[in-house]
Amino acid sequence: MNKSVSLYRPLQCIQYALAVLWIYQGFIPKILFQAQDELRIWQLQGFSESLASIMMQASGVIEIIFGMLFFIFKSATLLHYFNIFGMVGLSLLILWVDPHYFSNAFNPFVMNVAMAVLSLTAIQLIKQLKQNSTTY
């Protein structure tokens, strides 16, 4: 098997996983069901309930669009750097707004670290793929 092909398959898996995770996070808890925890995060930042609901839905749309970018740009390291930055930023926001979320069974730390590490791995794979394509 071609070395590039063997690197491309795990990269493709990471791309699809990140796309699905972002689309799910944008659609299910923010738009479809409007989870109370999501709404509470916005309210803790000083938004009224109605404005918090709008902000939550808008952030859901942004997350869906961001997730779709992983389907479109298959070897864009910049997208993965944005993902890492976003995961760190969202973790810090939750830590600042209400640190108790980090003690829950399903908490932002678990998801955010996993998604950031997927992007770190993808960056390494992309760099290796680019290196392989210049050596042939």
From TrEMBL:
The keyword Transcription does not apply. The keyword tRNA-binding does not apply. Keywords: Membrane, Transmembrane, Transmembrane helix. The chain crosses the membrane at residues 14-33, 54-73, 79-97, 109-126. The lineage of its organism: Bacteria, Pseudomonadati, Pseudomonadota, Gammaproteobacteria, Moraxellales. This is DoxX-like family protein. It comes from Acinetobacter celticus. It comes from the Bacteria.
